[in-house]
């Protein structure tokens, strides 16, 4: 029978570390999970080069290869991985209710019914949108200092942004790099006072206020940047090999607006020490509900939690029906 008339035990939306870890656990618990990969199978990690900080890879690994490993592990236990994008949802508010998720593979849309839904749609780093920035992503332009900072040891880099993420990334990079220059577009930082204090106390970190990135210079790899003072319009070039964009993330939650509880920036809200959303049988794991840590390993951890939460929920619904 097709999904349209049989409710799945577990539907997973999104294929980053959270989704695949949820799939491994759900498959091993005989929940026969079906995963829809989303637009970018493998998620954000497929846009980085090397991953050096995921436990279990003593020599590091390639982000895309790691996601392939996770996929193979999930399918080994029977996860049905399908290419498709969830476009809208009709979630039941009843305990034991059946959720409807509409998915599209680009050609046609179908309705998928599921008893539990694990949302692991992730978040996308925001970029400035400059042509040169987009062209050099993976060639010196990055949106993740903890992922890629190591490769710029002893070199000069810039960080764009003035929020907590930018401040945190800049101070992290300052420990590895020769010099870090932070470009802040206003005459003040948005980051918390504590983070600003840390930035100001870091010797090899210079903050340029009222300054924006005009262009990333270089053919195949970053060789420098042209920056502009937005008060005087004065432009100048800096020789750097790394450009870290830290202007915020956007959680991929548009389709859940008005349905699931989210904070003012769109991150799904889950219960303390759980992955439960405000709808029974619907769980959220990974960056879609985490603006604090945003690491592959923390995403994987919450993916595991979501599968365990889903399994317990299904068991409690079955107990209710039997009683
Ligand atoms: P924020 O939205 O807080 O900050 C984004 C920064 O990028 C701002 O300085 C903003 O400038 C700047 N920016 C945005 N668009 C552009 C652009 N086009 N060109 C240049 N600069 C731009 O995002 P964060 O990721 O820093 O933080 C998100 C949330 O996560 C916050 O609530 C933060 O407090 C929290 N967080 C907490 C941490 C912690 O507690 N350890 C660590 C990291 C994040 P402007 O101010 O001019 O708008």
From TrEMBL:
<dbReference type="InterPro" id="IPR050097">
    <property type="entry name" value="Ferredoxin-NADP_redctase_2"/>
</dbReference>
<dbReference type="GO" id="GO:0004791">
    <property type="term" value="F:thioredoxin-disulfide reductase (NADPH) activity"/>
</dbReference>
<dbReference type="InterPro" id="IPR023753">
    <property type="entry name" value="FAD/NAD-binding_dom"/>
</dbReference>
<dbReference type="GO" id="GO:0019430">
    <property type="term" value="P:removal of superoxide radicals"/>
</dbReference>
<keyword id="KW-0521">NADP</keyword>
<keyword id="KW-0285">Flavoprotein</keyword>
<dbReference type="InterPro" id="IPR008255">
    <property type="entry name" value="Pyr_nucl-diS_OxRdtase_2_AS"/>
</dbReference>
<feature type="domain" description="FAD/NAD(P)-binding">
    <location>
        <begin position="9"/>
        <end position="303"/>
    </location>
</feature>
<keyword id="KW-0274">FAD</keyword>
<keyword id="KW-0560">Oxidoreductase</keyword>
<dbReference type="GO" id="GO:0005737">
    <property type="term" value="C:cytoplasm"/>
</dbReference>
<dbReference type="InterPro" id="IPR005982">
    <property type="entry name" value="Thioredox_Rdtase"/>
</dbReference>
<dbReference type="Pfam" id="PF07992">
    <property type="entry name" value="Pyr_redox_2"/>
</dbReference>
<protein>
    <recommendedName>
        <fullName>Thioredoxin reductase</fullName>
        <ecNumber>1.8.1.9</ecNumber>
    </recommendedName>
</protein>
<dbReference type="InterPro" id="IPR036188">
    <property type="entry name" value="FAD/NAD-bd_sf"/>
</dbReference>
<keyword id="KW-1015">Disulfide bond</keyword>
<comment type="subunit">
    <text>Homodimer.</text>
</comment>
<comment type="similarity">
    <text>Belongs to the class-II pyridine nucleotide-disulfide oxidoreductase family.</text>
</comment>
<keyword id="KW-0676">Redox-active center</keyword>
